[in-house]
């Protein structure tokens, strides 16, 4: 049963490694030599994925080029031609130990819908709908330009491992603790496709609206300050702590109303609020362990049907948030609106207990988690460390979108120079060390919650 037997399962993975030599000729060549000395497996996989690469290339063309409507339509319809048996790359594919995959065992790629939505952003990612052979439409986000999706893909794999561990432990299994994941398929170091998480809305869009002057705050707190006024007050305030306290007095939380709006039956309301608290707890602990940063309100989605949170844009990890222009000083996002959604008990009760259970499972299985992280941060194909320019672009304080993301010649050499430090910090967290002192699970959770809600730390952070 060889690796090539699972070619249908990992078309994006194989395709990415075949194309990775374009950017990392030395490292990719050494990798191929170590895993396949004779080159036979690589040749076989390359032949089997040739048609898949054509599909990927066409999707990239749809995303990258400024095409006229006729040209785009012709390209999209051209994707459906031929007799290809390419799986939908963002669909969940079954794994058969016998490597037997009949045609009907997974949805095949039948082309793209004509309509394409262009999203906001410097790189203008496109939302496309992939037509599957099962008659379903699979919405995908195609990104290219300055976005490197490889770290997002590895982080999602790490979240998947944590979910397996949580499922294996009785206390976390009965609480249904898990991290919501989605498919990420990098095509090249600068392009790829993500699974669109249907039925979700960014927390920021619900709270303050897409234009930052409405949302739930505008509907229910008409006498409160608008978001932009709060932001301006924080910028001009000399005493950040006093300015932050003033903002809190005039920008009261409304997240609890999300559940009242969508779940009218008391049983549903209670169940969804419980699911929300559990989801926030699990994602907070896992995010803390890997040092996940850039957790502003537009990078956290909430499922409108289940109330679970979904974290997106995972490009800032291993405490790289400390290198941002305005350093991130809290372990995870636990602002007043996040806490407000947990009900009158706030962080006490369900949230705290679920944090402790999640952290307990991770500390028990720290060797497995450290192995995955060590492989990732030492992988020469990945550049997880933020360059100064990328760190600056993460927090743009102006509306100037003309700055391009150009790597300096030393970026490749400097990319993993902090790998040992990052791995050591993750190990310290899993061992319970905080500020040089070892904590119990309860003590560590208490300190993390305290730091995340500390007004002094929150007042020093980037408003948003």
From TrEMBL:
Residue span(s) of domain PI3K/PI4K catalytic: 112-424
PROSITE patterns: FATC (PS51190), PI3_4_KINASE_1 (PS00915), PI3_4_KINASE_2 (PS00916), PI3_4_KINASE_3 (PS50290)
Domain FATC: 437-464
EC number: 2.7.11.1
GO biological process: DNA repair
Region listing for Disordered, in residue ranges: 394-421
One GO molecular-function entry: protein serine/threonine kinase activity
Reaction(s) catalysed by this chain's protein: L-threonyl-[protein] + ATP = O-phospho-L-threonyl-[protein] + ADP + H(+); L-seryl-[protein] + ATP = O-phospho-L-seryl-[protein] + ADP + H(+)
Keywords recorded for this protein, A-Z: ATP-binding, Cell cycle, DNA damage, Kinase, Nucleotide-binding, Nucleus, Serine/threonine-protein kinase, Transferase
Predominant localisation class: nucleus
Location within or outside the cell: Nucleus
Record's compositionally biased regions (Acidic residues): 398-413
Domain of life: Eukaryota
GO CC annotation: nucleus
Official protein name in the record: Serine/threonine-protein kinase ATM
Annotated source species: Taxus chinensis
């Amino acid at each position: 049963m060889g690796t090539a037997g699972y070619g249908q399962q990992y078309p994006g993975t194989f395709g990415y490694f075949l194309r990775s030599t374009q950017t990392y000729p030395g490292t990719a060549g050494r990798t191929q030599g170590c895993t396949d000395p004779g080159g036979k497996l690589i040749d076989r996989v390359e032949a089997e994925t040739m048609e898949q690469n054509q599909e990927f290339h066409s999707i990239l063309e749809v995303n990258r080029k400024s095409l006229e409507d006729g040209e785009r339509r012709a390209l999209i319809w051209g994707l459906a031609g031929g007799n290809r048996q390419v799986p939908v790359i963002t669909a969940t594919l079954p794994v058969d130990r016998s490597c037997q995959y009949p045609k009907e065992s997974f949805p095949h790629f039948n082309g793209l819908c004509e309509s394409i939505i262009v999203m906001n952003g410097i790189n203008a990612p496109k939302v496309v709908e992939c037509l599957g052979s099962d008659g379903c439409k699979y919405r995908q986000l195609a990104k290219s330009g300055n976005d490197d999706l490889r770290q997002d893909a590895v982080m999602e794999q790490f979240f998947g491992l944590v979910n397996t561990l949580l499922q294996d432990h009785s206390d976390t299994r009965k609480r249904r603790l898990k991290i919501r994941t989605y498919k990420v398929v990098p095509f090249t170091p600068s392009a790829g496709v993500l699974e669109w998480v249907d039925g979700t809305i960014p927390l920021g869009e619900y709270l303050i609206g897409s234009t930052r002057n409405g949302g739930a705050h505008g509907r229910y707190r008409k006498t409160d300050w608008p978001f932009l006024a709060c932001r301006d007050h924080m910028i001009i305030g000399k005493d950040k702590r006093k300015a932050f306290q003033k903002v809190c007095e005039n920008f009261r939380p409304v997240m609890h109303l999300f559940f009242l709006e969508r779940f009218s039956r008391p049983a549903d309301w209670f169940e969804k609020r419980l699911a929300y608290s559990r989801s926030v707890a699990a994602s907070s602990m896992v995010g803390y362990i890997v040092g996940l940063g850039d957790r502003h309100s537009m990078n956290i989605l909430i499922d409108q049907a289940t109330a679970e949170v979904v974290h997106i844009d995972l490009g800032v990890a291993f405490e790289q948030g400390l290198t941002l222009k305005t350093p991130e000083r809290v372990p995870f996002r636990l602002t007043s609106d996040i806490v407000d959604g947990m009900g009158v008990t706030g962080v006490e009760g369900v949230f705290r207990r679920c944090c402790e259970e999640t952290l307990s499972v991770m500390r028990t299985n720290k060797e497995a988690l450290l192995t995955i992280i060590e492989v990732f941060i030492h992988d020469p194909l990945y550049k997880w460390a933020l360059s100064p320019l990328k760190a600056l672009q993460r927090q743009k304080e102006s509306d100037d979108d003309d700055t391009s993301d150009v790597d300096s010649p030393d970026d490749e050499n400097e990319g993993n120079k902090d790998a040992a430090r990052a791995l050591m910090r993750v190990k310290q967290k899993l061992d319970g060390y905080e500020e040089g002192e070892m904590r119990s699970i309860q003590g560590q959770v208490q300190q993390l919650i305290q730091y995340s809600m500390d007004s002094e730390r929150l007042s020093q952070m980037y408003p948003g």
